[in-house]
Amino acid sequence: MNAVQSDLQQLRIKLILFKSKVRSAVYGGSPDHEFLSANGPVSQWFRTVGTSQYQNMPELGTMQRLYKELQTAATHLIGLYKADKIEEAHEGLRDIEKLSEQLTRVISSLEQRLR
């Protein structure tokens, strides 16, 4: 596995964990606010690896925008759950999945281009 593949695989794994943390929070688990925050592992990846290795790639901006949308959606769903709008929060997981799929496609596109 080369450096690009490794970098982007790290991001994919962090995104899977992100989705898992959101799902857990809207199914009654304690929200991991630190993980989901601007200081969490995905955000750190963008600040460190993303900006140092891929800052000149147009995909990076798209990836960052999609991740911010994911963060906003996650915060909203957790808020819905806390407000006892549990069904609405569960239904909102579809939005998390859609955004995550979009982000994953952009990551794959970047990976393909850099091969």
TrEMBL record:
GO molecular function, one term: kinase activity
Entry keyword set: Kinase, Transferase
Entry protein name: Histidine kinase
